[in-house]
Automatic annotation (TrEMBL):
Protein name: LRC43 protein
Cross-referenced PROSITE patterns: LRR (PS51450)
Superkingdom field: Eukaryota
Any one GO cellular component localisation term in the record: cytoplasm
Annotated PANTHER family: LEUCINE-RICH REPEAT-CONTAINING PROTEIN 51 (PTHR15454:SF19), NISCHARIN RELATED (PTHR15454)
Keywords carried by this UniProt record: Leucine-rich repeat, Repeat
Signal sequence coordinates: none
Organism from which the protein derives: Rhagologus leucostigma
InterPro entries: Leu-rich_rpt (IPR001611), LRR_dom_sf (IPR032675)
Entry-linked SUPFAM superfamilies: Outer arm dynein light chain 1
Amino acid sequence: PGSVSAAFQEYLRHLGLQDFPCGLGSWNKSCRNARRSPRAEPVGLEDTVPPGEETPEALLELLRDQHSPWALPPDCSPQDRLLREVAVLAPELLRGSRVFQVVKSLRILDKGVEEVDEGLLRFQQLEELILSANHISRVTSAHLPRTLKVLELCYNAVGDLQGLCAQPPLELQHLGLGYNRLCGPSQEKHLTVDFWPNLVSLDLSFNSLTDLLGLVSQLSTLQNLRILVLQGNPLALIPTYRGFLVDSLPKLSILDDIHIWPDERQQFQGLARQPELTRSEARVVVSIGEMKGLPDPKAFQQLKVGSEGPVITYSYCVTYEF
């Protein structure tokens, strides 16, 4: 599927919400008839269930027992379990467009999604959207539900934040953009309180951000920011990288998955007022170990001048990619 909506429909088919033991069928026919009649008594007791049908309790047990062929795998999400159980207890809630009112968390991982389409606006209660390991290069913020609090886009191909910041969901608390294609310094301007007034957690790890001073000047406007991940960017190679961030963002609690303790903050106090120490260059030392199968260049330097023997020249090229 190319869009989030198409991937969601495939996800519903995979859950089998209309198939036994979920949904409405011969296994709970009297239950369906009871729902059609507002005066009917609810069916739930063993002795009131007609032969050939199952109680809601028995159907739920088929979903929860790990030895059952209808059980979900242990690593499934809480949202998967919730939808399956709702499909047993109140299957009418998942009919047609009603399913969009139930979903609060949507996880679509590694499904080849390329487009965050406007169909997402049907999820009027959606709070968490995780689209990791797909092929998304651009996000149109107008297609994101206003109720969103968590947006995870790691392992995609996002290289520009302009579309995401046009009309961002103002209640967002976590934004995950690790392992994408963000390059500095053009993207730092999109990481301010004007776009993310309630942001608590920000993951920008393993991109191509290089301007530490410019980035910090923008992040310092995020008054609610407590968790920041920047490791894997070229700017993290700067010798004073961690100390400068710790002193520049006094409300930060965790940097690169490491807690900031009071003694560390005391150690780097005043470093933010010395930007000249934050040089935009780094020294990298690369050591090459033993290499086999290559002729030794020294053996060809012993040829005498004027020798009539053939001379063979070898040249080697070593490329470093950062």
